[in-house]
Amino acid sequence: MLESSIEPNHSTSEGQSYGMLFAVIGNDRQRFDNLWKWTAANMAGSDLTNRLPGWLWGQGKDGQWQLQDANSASDSDLWIVYALLEAARLWQRPDYREDALHLLKTIESRLVVNLPGLGKMVLPGPEGFVQPDHLWRLNPSYLPLPLLRRLAKEAPTGPWKEIAENTVKMVRASSPRGFVADWIGYRGTSPQSGLFVIDPIKGESGSYDAIRVYLWAGMTAKSDPLGAPLLASLDGMASRTASSGIPPEKVQVISGNVEGQGAFGFSAALIPYFQAKGQPWLAEQQQRRVEQALNTALAKADGELAEPLYYNFMLSLFALGWAEKRYQFRDDGTLKLSWETSCVRAAIR
Questions:
Q1: Where are the domains of the chain?
Q2: Which residues 6+ apart lie within 8 Å of 254 measured at CB?
């Protein structure tokens, strides 16, 4: 669920999880600790062994500040676990790892399902994603390969290696023209078989959710054996953006039809993608657009901004931080951080 569509005076678990990740990348221990303590207390009720963080918190119509929707968003849950594991590793905080493992166990018990003919997969949330007639709704942007690799490293006997493989199967099977949809259906046709289908609610459209799939694919380590097959299945976005210079806002994954121009955050998401595909000139073109848009946006008052701040800025933080090598993902999903190198050099001196 994207915060760009959230009412004022609200926050989401997605926003909290990304804030925690960027605090690790920025080596900001105090900010991370504040974010995590607030998230655990307010979104998970300080009960990580039994609850997942509710996705929406804020001021209700009754004026009360509290959890407004207790259903969780699995991408946020997974990013929170990831951020906790990396904070524990980098800052020698075993308490963070303990919290991460409690939450991961809850995720495995409540969100991981065994789909007929496919195997283990993660539902987008505990409620609302299992449909009648053996149909499950899935979101490919919720499952970045580097994140899944990190979970597999931490829990090698868990389902995460299989989920990584099935995520790539999902994208490849449902992207016939090189575009990925925001939501994908999976229908079990028998106890031993099934197939990916058009999502019954959102249809074949790929837009604000799907753009993250290209971002995650681009940031996946080159040595990851699943990285190249994933990138190869997403060629449509490269050819379409190359022809116009600007990524489309919306694509129809079956017909290949496109409409609109993506916001500058879409261009940001494609910077790592084009770099990974060996098209640096296209990456540079998108980066110029992003930097110009950011300069314009930051020069204006908030009330004058035509585009939502949160989503464009978030995608830009991910992409530009990666392009500037402030962080990279290793093949086991761990972070390679610029400040780690600086700390080592300082210690040697």
A1: 1-110
A2: 176, 177, 198, 204
